[in-house]
């Protein structure tokens, strides 16, 4: 069963709801997991690897931003999702490279270390999927009805 | 979808047994364990809701992902309990 993508009065395709909801589910999971993990690490053993834990918290906040950006139908939703997914991609590539190049700076892993290998590389794949979705739906109308 | 309900019920039983036996279990991080045992109930519940409103293959994909998350979290629970030699 496929979503209707037929043209509308405004002559623009209606965006399918499925991919958005799947992305929300995955981003929501990572928002929760990364933020909770960073919260526990900062609360219990911040001194061991402050940089790694702060970066973990930052990644958690970015995942929250992406989740909110994808969920909300307000005007700032799409820019927020663009910014979050973009920051995520830059972050995971930068941290991934640095964590391999300079092991000393990262005595403990972040969510983004080694390009997210601790999370079956989802952290590096997810922003690409998110950005691709934002790109391909950029000219589509938001579905007027929330119901599928 | 019925399977999701069964799985969620099984996870709830698992968590409750965990809470009841946590005293005297001597695990290192009881707070983390409780957080995981509560958190593990969330993904399938959320996936159930999303799959109900998204009756396409995307709904199935969401349920697949949530099941995977539940499996990983079960492994983490087992590791925290000291069952995996960790």
How would you summarize what this structure contains?
The complex is a heterodimer of chains A (148) and B (86). By secondary structure, chain A is mainly alpha-helical.
Which features characterize this protein?
heterodimer, A: 148 residues, mainly alpha, 61% helix, 0% strand, elongated, B: 86 residues, 4 helices
Description:
The complex is a heterodimer of chains A (148) and B (86). Chain A is mainly α. Chain A has one domain. Chain A has 4 helices and no strands. Chain A has helices spanning 18-45, 50-71, 77-101, 122-136. The radius of gyration of chain A is 17 Å and the shape is elongated. Chain A starts with 17 loop residues before the first helix and ends in a 12-residue tail after the last helix. With 86 residues, chain B is mainly α. Chain B has one domain. Helix content of chain B is 78%, strand content 0%. Chain B has 4 helices and no strands. In chain B, helix 2 runs antiparallel to helix 4 (57-81) and helix 3 (42-53) packs antiparallel against helix 4 (57-81). Classes of the chains: A mainly alpha (148), B mainly alpha (86). Chain A binds chain B through residues 1-3, 16-19, 21-22, 24-26, 28-29, 32, 36, 40, 146-148, and chain B through 31-32, 35, 39, 42-43, 46-47, 50, 53-59, 61-62, 65-66, 69.
């Amino acid at each position: 069963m496929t979503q209707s993508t037929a043209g509308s009065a405004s002559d623009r395709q209606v965006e399918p709801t499925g991919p958005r909801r799947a992305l929300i589910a995955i981003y929501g999971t990572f928002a929760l997991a990364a933020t909770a993990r960073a919260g526990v690490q900062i609360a219990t053993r911040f001194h061991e690897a402050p940089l790694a834990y702060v970066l973990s918290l930052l990644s958690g906040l970015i995942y929250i931003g992406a989740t909110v950006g994808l969920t909300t139908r307000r005007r700032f939703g799409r820019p927020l999702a663009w910014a979050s997914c973009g920051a995520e991609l830059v972050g995971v590539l930068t941290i991934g490279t640095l964590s391999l190049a300079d092991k000393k700076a990262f005595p403990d892993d972040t969510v983004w270390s080694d390009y997210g290998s601790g999370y079956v590389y989802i952290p590096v794949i997810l922003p690409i999927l998110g950005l691709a979705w934002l790109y391909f739906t950029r000219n589509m109308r938001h579905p007027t009805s929330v119901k599928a | 979808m019925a399977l999701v309900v069964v799985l969620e019920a099984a996870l709830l039983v698992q968590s409750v047994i965990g809470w009841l036996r946590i005293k005297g279990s001597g695990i290192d991080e009881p707070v983390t364990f409780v957080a995981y045992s509560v958190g593990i109930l969330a993904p399938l519940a959320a996936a159930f809701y999303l799959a109900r409103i998204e009756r396409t293959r995307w709904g199935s994909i969401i349920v697949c992902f949530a099941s995977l998350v539940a499996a990983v979290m079960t492994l983490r629970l087992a590791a925290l309990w000291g069952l995996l030699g960790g």
